[in-house]
Amino acid sequence: MAVGAPTDVNGRRVFKNAARYYLPECPQISVMRVDGPLFFASVENVEQQFRQEERNSRIAKTKLMGLKGLWKIDLSGAGLLLKEIRRARKAGADFHLSLRMLQPLR
Fold this sequence. Notes:
This protein has 106 residues and is of the alpha/beta class. The chain has a single domain (2-98), classed as Transcription Regulator spoIIAA (2-Layer Sandwich), CATH 3.30.750. The chain is built from 3 helices and 5 strands. The chain is globular. The termini are close together.
């Protein structure tokens, strides 16, 4: 899972991997991307990454998770997404899923 931050590249506004490029994250929108499978064997790792992201940044009003790089999901993965959506909404945030993101968070 990667967390994106807005930046300008060649005059265009894009999201890049915040940690890799040392970019400040947007305080209003948290943009995340899952690359790889989200199934019973990876759910624990992805959930740990969610908790680490919560510890490292402020709670954004809106969370956007891009699933374009997600190539496998089972009931455990779907359950984790539902849990995270409920957790965000309980904290007063919105949580949106997107099957399409304009650019990978590299």
